[in-house]
Specification:
Structural class: mainly beta
Distance between the termini: 105 Å
Helix content: under 10%
Oligomer: single chain
Largest sheet: 7 strands, mixed
Number of domains: 6
Amino acid sequence: MLISLIVMLTIHLFHSGELYAQSDEPFQIAVHEGHVYLYVLESPGTNFAYNFYRKSSEESDFIQINEEPVRGVLYGDQLRIMLEDDYDQIRTSAEVTSEAALLALVKGNSTESILLSMAYPKLAEAVNKLFIDEDAPDGERVEYRVEVLNQRDEPTGEIFEKDVTVEDNVLGETEILDVSNEGRQVTVEWTYTPFTENDVAFRFNVFAGNSEDNLRRVNRSIIIRNLSQDTFRYTFNTENLGDEIILRVGSVSITSASGPLSEPKRLLVEDNVPPGVIQRVRTSLIEDSVQVQWRVSRELDAAGYHVYRGTESDGEFERINSELIPVQQPFYFDDDIEQGQRYLYRVTALDESGNESEQSTAVPRIIPDDTPPPEPADITAELNSEDDHVILNWNMPDVPDDLRNYIVLRRIVEGRSPSANYSQISPDDLKENELQVQGSEETGFEEGALYRFGVVAADSSRNFSDTTFVDVRIPNVTPPDPPNVARAQNRDGIRINISWSGSLSRDVGSYNLYRKSGNEEFELATELDPGERQYRDEQIEIGDSYIYAISAVDTSGNESDLVETEKVLVKRSNPPQRVRNVRAVKTSEGVRIRWEPVASDHLAGYKVYVANRSTGNFEPVHEDLVSETEITTEIDSESVWFRVTALDVTDNESRPSEPARLIVPD
């Protein structure tokens, strides 16, 4: 996430001495200009505080050296104010986009947080990871204690203690071992010799310029001092080639104190990078010469090209151009050639400093005799369906002396898997004028497919004649696969929707839809396009049942087996309207019940129900449907109620009428 470091962030930076933030001890001390830097690098939690105490050799008790509990900033804008002009540099080093993100990162206990805190003391002080004692007794051995407080400024019981002699730490010497360049990219390598066992050098800066008075720091990232390394290295880019630059390296402690700079090293930044390898070299025969072509070099300082020729890829290549080929002339004509010879060509680019690129990939060119054999003629193809093979015959009017072989090609022009490319089906030593071609070992020739065969004559110089073609259509006698699933659904008695899944065969030309009702045989209802997967049948009758079947028909007219749907009944989803104005009167002939007729095109009849009370359990009065709007029946009781329902031809039954009480005249 953080800081473009020159070394891995997981290294242990420090000895077992008094300092160093990535040791196991969270409390570290350093001295600079008489000030003692007290680092507490592991935050105990949120909203914590510290009290700092000091005890000299002449004192028996610790003395608190901070007036108020020491706390870090709480908000990102506070951090930005405290960092002042250093904020942008620190945020860039941390690779975060806001002050809030920077604060959250540095207040944690990650390796990145520790490195940032030690690289930027002002940042560590802002987030309560550094306290500077500016009144320490110079030259004395003193002991420090850090007391951790909670958010109510009450001691948590956690303390850290360490002693130190109040003397400025002296940084060691830096020596540049080597400076080099690859074009504008300069690499400097150095070693560092500590002044004492407990050397506090934490990082390095690299400086470069045209003169001692014009040195500037060139490392934008932090170069960490890794104690497991004896030498260090940094690479940066310069602006101009041909300049002589001066380089120096210096160490920096965790107090941001700078150590002595190394002795200066001078480097002439030479143009020592050869041009890139030439790409897309190709050759062609033009009359009696070989034209070598390539892509123009994209190097800004390209000066020209050389062309090399050889006969073996691992052999020697000799330059064949006497003068440098101009940059904007990416071609060369080689007219010193022999027929029948195979040449390999390589190209290099040169820049204005004389640097030559690596040779390009070798590109071959054969100088053949350029007279092809005559074209085979009178080609015929005879299909033997029983043995599944095709016999090809052709004639050669004038057989050349250097005829090497015939090449027979084949491709599928039309079929399940047509191909635009031909494949060779003949043996390499075919010299006869006949070839028997078998179909695939697994499936033979594909039924219904159109095969195209071609015959080419080749000579010993790999000249090829024109191709003679013949087409063979394989008969199609196998019907296609049937559709997988067919479904039929009644849609409120208005239509039946039929749907099906397509056939897996690729040569389906159409689908046939069949229908039958009752005990009838299937009859063809319609023929559908191969892309269709559904059909709506509106020529139906309410109350009738239908079965549908679908078949696939290929382009040769072969029809698959039928796939049938389940039987579907044509019915309305809504029952007839409710019966109204039911009246029941006792007469001398029995009880006569009358009601208003229900308007319905598909009415089948009525049912009459009776119960001993209006809210009771109504039972049917009769078994068969009543076609009229009245009925006379025998009822023993005079205290009864009647209800009437209407039914359509698909047995949809209406809601019962309002209960009607039997009227008994006086």
